[in-house]
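anyone seen this seq b4? input:
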Amino acid sequence: MNEFEIEAETRHVKGKGASRRLRRDGKFPGVVYGAHEDAVSIQLGQNDMLLHTAHEAFYSHILDLKIDGKPEKVVVKDMQRHPYKPFILHMDFQRIDQAEQLSLRVPLHFINEDICVGVKQDGGIVSHLISDLEISCLPKDLPEFIQVDVANVHVGESVHLADLVMPEGVVITSLTHGGDDGLAVAQVVMPRAAQVEDDAEDTAADAPEEAAPSGDDE
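predicted toks r here
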């Protein structure tokens, strides 16, 4: 399992001008809140955080954040990136209370695509309809990802939220609020080129046959 340690400092000066100066110095602003404590404004190193955020697991892990040397357990709740330059503008972290449930988006990992029935037998392809999922659990039960098994999916069939095998203690947040467990997560479809070819064959088969020319014209 990946471990992430983040060094941060308390940020005393705020405002757009202060944030611009921070970024010129290779840092950027952030905030830490939650766990029934006051929010704290912080500043973080740009290069270190770019390395951390390059890992998928960073977004679904409990992180070790040290603010002026004081350790906190947090998760990432929001991150703003520059629209076209490779740097981070701002990050929000939520403190962890081990006794309270948290909600967090975790990635979906699609497994057994190479042995999927609809792929091996029917020539289909697996289409991923969503890439992550908001889940709720206690911090100790937080998974790094949720697996989506497509081994037994045929062409034209889908995997739905109701089909997912969730780790113990973990629930899909939307379903606790009356969401649709029939929402499709992945499906197996025919490649577009093959579908166009099939449609063309069907059209040709349905077309009326032309009458043979009459011998009277000879």
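The first strand starts at residue 5 and ends at 10. DSSP finds four helices and 13 strands in the chain. kinda curious what u guys think
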